[in-house]
Design goal:
By secondary structure, the protein is an alpha+beta fold. Helix content is 58%, strand content 18%. It has 5 helices and 3 strands, in the order αααββααβ. It has a 3-stranded mixed β-sheet with strand order 1-2-3. 12% of the residues are buried.
Length: 93
């Protein structure tokens, strides 16, 4: 008898029912704090994803400027953690 991870079972089920993208987008929101770190995470809110676009609201313009400069890096890290190119764009507001 082999051991199967519950996450793998859920991903397979969602893929078979056309919902894998929604699962991965929700997962991107969940891992946002881990990817950007505590300081940035504490200063962002209303993190959401729709159709591959992750939208983040920031508390000040300095942070907005920093995140805009790191968009590619953040997208790459998120997709690396997700295991698939789920996030196509990062929208900082």
């Amino acid at each position: 008898m082999s051991t199967v991870m519950i996450g793998d079972v859920i991903r397979e089920f969602l893929a078979q029912h056309g919902k894998q993208q929604l699962f991965l987008e929700q997962r991107a929101v969940e891992i946002w704090p881990e990817v950007v770190g505590k300081l940035i995470s504490r200063n962002t809110h209303k993190v959401s994803v729709a159709k591959g676009v992750l939208t983040v609201f920031v508390k000040n313009s300095t942070l907005r400027f920093e995140l805009n400069g790191r968009k590619s890096e953040i997208i790459e890290k998120l997709n690396e953690r997700l295991g698939t190119p789920t996030i196509k764009e990062l929208n900082i507001r």
